[in-house]
UniProtKB/TrEMBL annotation:
Domain of life per record: Bacteria
Organism: Rhodovulum marinum
Domain DNA/RNA non-specific endonuclease/pyrophosphatase/phosphodiesterase, first and last residues per copy: 410-629
Record keyword Kinase present: no
Keywords: Endonuclease, Hydrolase, Metal-binding, Nuclease
Binding site for Mg(2+): N512
Lineage: Bacteria, Pseudomonadati, Pseudomonadota, Alphaproteobacteria, Rhodobacterales
Protein name: Endonuclease G
Keyword Membrane part of the UniProt annotation: no
Catalytic residues (UniProt): H472 (proton acceptor)
SUPFAM superfamilies attached to this UniProt entry: His-Me finger endonucleases (SSF54060), Trypsin-like serine proteases (SSF50494)
MF-aspect GO terms: endonuclease activity; hydrolase activity; metal ion binding; nucleic acid binding
InterPro entries, sorted: DNA/RNA_non-sp_Endonuclease_sf (IPR044929), Endo_G_ENPP1-like_dom (IPR001604), ENPP1-3/EXOG-like_nuc-like (IPR020821), His-Me_finger_sf (IPR044925), Non-specific_endonuclease (IPR040255), Peptidase_S1_PA (IPR009003), Peptidase_S1_PA_chymotrypsin (IPR043504)
């Protein structure tokens, strides 16, 4: 038994008995030759396979990334009549065609809405709708898919889902600890429990429940469960009912079915589900049987329903955690008693404190000022010749003072200058030694910097419960080098330094930043004649009309930048001349009139631009570096052809030397 489960064993008889019974049932169901997809031979109703997950990442089938025991366990339509899956809109169940919006009416055209137990459902509709508010779609940011499945609040600050769902975004880190998987753009996957992924329903940031930690994940062959820590203020968890259920007890399954043709007849999918998937549904059904270890039901489900809550229709209490099914036969859930037993043990070792009304979670401790004693910061002579710092111009009087004197926050291989009024970095500067870089696994804990007044910086209160990312200004990997490539201490120290909030500016999670994050790689790829050494200055574009977040406790004064800039400086080995190139991540505001109209005010793109353009937008002064700008040399010739601005999608798009 995995160590994580071993900690639950021996103290909770209900959980131990459930595990033992599950093993017996699974052993009887396993085909000859051991379990599929496991080395140990442990079997399970559902065995997650990482190879299958990688193969299926692009399919758009949320639940296709797990194998089945004996070819039987998939999400299922069990009955061919009386088992519809109702849309939900604005937290209401659309179980009839009366009073619908035009959108809902069109989506429900041709759907079969008949089901038994309508009288009980109508009598308890309001209760069921209230409880269903706690169920949400597990949306992924920086991931390789849009969402992973379903989860629901089972306790204050704790959500439950299936193991095979959690493994899509979480991985075992060390011992019993789990961490979020590495995602796109050199960032961890971020997860949000989204209860408003419904038809005809506007978003509401207050209802977004961001997953802040993976508390516990069951091992292979164990009940298919995982618990997540979430920040979901104002949402009541669904109560658990551990009482045994008789066959034919009416239930309702709330989750997010995805289009899933596996073993399910197309005509039934159309009749019960219509043609809109990945949105919140309530599916009525009945208990088929329960021996206390496995709960069988006949509500209609499809891929994406994994992690759904099975509620008693009469009370709204959770009676099971849906995890799989056999088409035309049965659906199966982990009984609520097993969920409750595991939850009690998890809570005993992981404290999720309730916050007083109006309180906000405590911020991480600031790093100690004396911990930076050996940090030299940005080296102006790194390229073999002095790289002049930009002048701060109108921002000079706004730089936050640093304990010990000056305004430069020195870290390992980089420095930061902080705006006191904006409480965000005005500019960062990093030395990158491409030949000595080490690509180490991402690991770091965001901290405030103890050398700054807390009033001049902002922590997690800016990022809590909204779709903003902590956008590294100095990219995590850029300072991760050492003259001695085996000097791991220096490299790890540099990575840890990048996880200070002074190196973070909020960026929307959906920002198109593949080329922006990869820009340093593009530059290094094109910099063979520059000895693979680069100095990079980076910062946000602060504007007077930048917008503030509403209802963001502790961070209402923070204005969110909309655009970002970089300047890369290199020195040609052959002649010693500097090259200084400027770049912006922009949706067009900075480059209006400089490029084709179709590029303006559209999607965010990365562009190479003249340094003078960045000066005008930021108020900084790049001084002598402008003379080393290839676009400054060519711009007079190319201005007539609209080529002062170059879209960057790879190393071949860069102009590093005058032509």
């Amino acid at each position: 038994m995995p160590t994580a489960l071993g900690r639950l064993r021996g103290r909770e008889p209900g959980f131990d008995e459930a595990v033992a019974r599950a093993r017996d049932l699974l052993a009887a169901a396993a085909p000859p030759g051991g379990a599929m997809g496991t080395e140990s031979g442990d079997s399970g109703y559902v065995t997650f396979e990482l190879d299958n997950a990688a193969r299926d990442l692009g399919r758009g089938e949320v639940e296709s990334a797990f194998a089945t025991r004996g070819g039987a366990m998939v999400e299922a339509i069990v009955r061919s009549t009386l088992r519809p899956s109702f849309y939900m809109a604005r937290d209401r169940v659309l179980s009839a065609r009366e009073g619908l919006s035009p959108m809902a009416r069109q989506l429900m055209e041709g759907m079969d809405l008949d089901f038994d137990d309508r009288a009980m459902f109508d009598a308890n509709r309001a209760l069921l709708e209230t409880c269903a508010r706690a169920a949400g779609r597990l949306d992924l940011f920086n991931g390789f898919r849009e969402y992973a499945g379903t989860g629901w609040l089972v306790d204050d600050g704790i959500a439950v889902t299936n193991r095979h769902v959690a493994e899509l975004f979480a991985r075992r880190w060390m011992g019993d600890d789990w961490d979020f998987r590495d995602g796109q753009f050199d960032r961890k996957v971020e997860v949000r429990l989204n209860p408003l992924a419904q038809i005809d329903t506007p978003p509401d940031p207050v209802r977004a429940a961001f997953v802040t930690a993976v508390l516990w994940v069951a091992g292979p062959g164990e009940p298919d469960m995982a618990f997540l820590r979430v920040h979901a203020p104002g949402t009541e968890p669904i109560p658990l009912s551990e009482a045994p259920l008789a066959p034919e007890t009416p239930v309702a399954v709330v989750g997010y079915p995805e289009r899933d043709p596996r073993d399910n007849p197309a005509e039934l999918i159309g009749s019960f589900f219509g043609d809109r998937f990945g949105v919140k549904r309530l599916a009525p059904g009945r208990v088929m049987g329960s021996d206390g270890w496995v709960l069988d039901h006949d509500a209609s489900t499809l891929g994406g329903n994994s992690g759904s809550v099975v509620m008693a229709m009469e009370t709204g209490a959770a009676v099971g955690l849906h995890f799989a099914g056999a088409a035309q036969e049965r659906n199966v859930a982990v009984p609520a008693a097993t969920v409750a037993a595991a939850l009690r043990r998890v809570k005993s070792r992981v404290t999720v404190p309730a916050l007083p009304a109006g309180a906000t979670p405590a911020e991480p401790e600031a790093s100690r000022p004396d911990s930076f004693a050996d940090r030299k910061g940005f080296d102006r002579a790194f390229l073999g010749a002095d790289t002049p710092l930009p002048c701060f111009g109108r921002w000079a009087d706004d730089l936050a003072p640093v304990a010990g004197g000056g305004t430069e926050l020195k870290y390992c291989h980089f420095s930061v200058w902080q705006s006191a009024t904006r409480r965000l970095p005005l500019m960062t500067a990093v030395n990158i030694h491409g030949a000595h870089l080490r690509r180490i696994p991402r690991k770091g804990r965001w901290q405030l910097d103890g050398r700054l007044d807390p009033a001049h910086q902002v922590g997690n209160e800016l990022y809590r419960s909204n779709p903003l990312d902590r956008g590294h200004m100095v990219r995590r990997l850029d300072p991760c080098w050492a003259e001695d490539i085996t000097d791991t201490d220096t490299i790890l120290k540099a990575q840890a330094d990048t996880f200070h909030y002074t190196n973070s500016v909020p960026q929307h999670a959906n920002l198109n930043q593949r080329d922006w994050v990869g820009l340093e790689d593009y530059i290094l790829d094109a910099s063979g004649e520059y000895d693979f050494k680069v100095n990079v200055f980076t910062g946000p574009v602060f504007r007077d009309d930048d917008r503030h977040l509403r209802n963001q406790a502790g961070a209402q004064d923070i204005a969110i930048p909309r655009e970002f800039w970089k300047v890369a400086v290199m020195r040609r080995a052959a002649c010693g001349n500097l090259s200084a190139t400027g770049y912006v991540l922009s949706h067009g505001e900075m480059i209006k009139g400089l490029t084709e109209a179709e590029f303006v005010l559209g999607a965010y793109e990365t562009y190479q631009v003249p340094l003078a353009l960045i000066e005008g937008a930021t108020g900084l002064d790049f001084g002598a570096l402008k003379a080393a700008d290839p676009l400054a040399v060519t711009s007079l010739r190319e201005a007539a052809f609209g080529q002062q601005v170059r879209r960057v999608r790879g190393a071949d798009d860069l102009s590093l030397t005058p032509r």
